[in-house]
Amino acid sequence: MTETTKKIAHLNDLLRDTFLTGRIIFTDGINALPDDMREEIITRVREFKDFSPDNDPYGEHDFGSFELAGNKIFWKIDYYDKNYEFASENPADPKQTRRVLTIMLASEY
To answer: 29: buried, middle or exposed (CB in 10 Å: 19+, 13-18, 0-12)?
Structure first.
């Protein structure tokens, strides 16, 4: 794993762990779930550590999935420029990159 990849993974983990360093989006399917299920989903996203070559082939910690009450849940982190308009040119640089964590039902993907 390169230093750049380690930095991206660290920044992604920071957003996922704290929900403070980027935008968090819940899809309509997640918003329609009962409050207690959404709370459990948030907890599982924050605590997710099950990274493997299958779900994290680039080592960036930018995707995860799990099952909850018969629902397959996906979360994904995307990298944007400072205005959230275009892809970031350097996801390892927090000065020019804005992160968006989207949490969704797999069926919404």
So the answer is: middle
- CA–CA gap between residue 94 and residue 69 (Å, rounded): 36
Q: Sheet containing 63-68: which strands, arranged edge to edge?
A: 22-26, 98-105, 71-80, 63-68
The pair of three-digit structure tokens given for residue 24, joined into one six-digit string: 């968090």
Q: What is the pLDDT of residue 1?
A: 80
Q: What is the pTM of this model?
A: 0.94
Q: H or E segment at 103?
A: strand 98-105
Dihedral of the alpha carbons of 54, 85, 83, 92, in degrees to the nearest 10: 30
11, 92 contact by CB (below 8 A): yes
Domain positions in the chain? 3-108
Number of residues in the chain: 109
Binning the chain into helix, strand and coil, the percentages to the nearest 5 are 35, 30, 40
Mean pLDDT computed over 75-98: 97
